[in-house]
Task: structure prediction
Amino acid sequence: MQRTKLAIIGSGPAGYTAAVYAARANLEPWLYEGFYAGPAGGQLMTTTEVENYPGFPKGITGPELMLLFREQAQRFGTKLFTEDVASVDFSKRPFDIKGSSTSVLADAIIIATGATAKRLEIPGTRDGEFWQKGVTACAICDGAAPIFRNQPLYVIGGGDTAVEEAIFLTRFGSKIYIIHRRDTLRASKIMAERAMKHPKIEILWNSVLEKVEGDTIVRKIHLRDVVKNTVSQREAAGVFFAIGHTPNIGFLNHQLQLDQKGYLFVRPGTTYTSCEGVFAAGDVQDSIYRQAVTAAGSGCMAALDAERWLAEHGGY
Ligand code: FAD
Result:
């Protein structure tokens, strides 16, 4: 079987940045980009304008940005495999990685498989409908877009994330509505109070989103009151899912320790996971920031941690 000093799993900003650093350190990394697990290039492949990635003062589309990341990783000799990793055996050294069509033994591994924003299966919100045309799952990423300015915006959820996103959106929208299916928020008391006291936030209790409509962008939502069992139509420009994220860790088969929120555990201030020689970067280990630039930053950290670990432990 083939062997590599370093395998990187995942091709978002974290994985490609780790590859740039590792390749420039002559580690000749293998990078599994993913295929069915998600598009090569990661979450930004599903978005249009990225306006907060430094270095692009006029903005850049997500796919364009990720192609540049990919090109830079390749330039220094990263070997790219556009396939999913099905499993990794962490009990043996070197680690045994099985992709969908290739296998490799790796002295060290960087896991950068990201996290997937949870969405609900609601008519009008899907890809090809109004997803990314007013429907999104990231207020920080998309909230400042012109289509949301001074318009009524709707946040779906009832936890801390939903409240945080609603408060953030008060800078842009005319009024922010939190749609919540129950009559109390799941958010912490302090966050719930903040939302309820905010003059620009209104909570629509016992309500569920039933449908999103529009022309080229979102214009209207249908809202069901689950107690009265009535449906009303409301003017809308934006719908923000804030119901959490799922880190993409199924293929790890419970071999690595998780943090309290179910993300990969890393030693604070490092990218070291619970297994020696295995590092994690990007959204898969970050329940807080989840931005392209923070993912890229931690990809750099993971490559430096892996390089130093390999030097010390004789991997090369
Ligand atoms: P990801 O980008 O999630 O990439 C993970 C990669 O791992 C994917 O390529 C996937 O295919 C691969 N993978 C998963 N499982 C496997 C497996 N088993 N084997 C092989 N590969 C696998 N952030 C910003 O900073 N600015 C923005 O404007 C912005 N807009 C966004 C818009 C949208 C719609 C979304 C969803 C997110 C947005 N974000 C934005 C957030 C940003 O995209 C993420 O924070 C960032 O992409 C995380 O990078 P990552 O490298 O950790 O993982």
Remarks:
- Residues 265 and 299 are 15 Å apart (CA to CA).
- The longest strand covers residues 103-111.
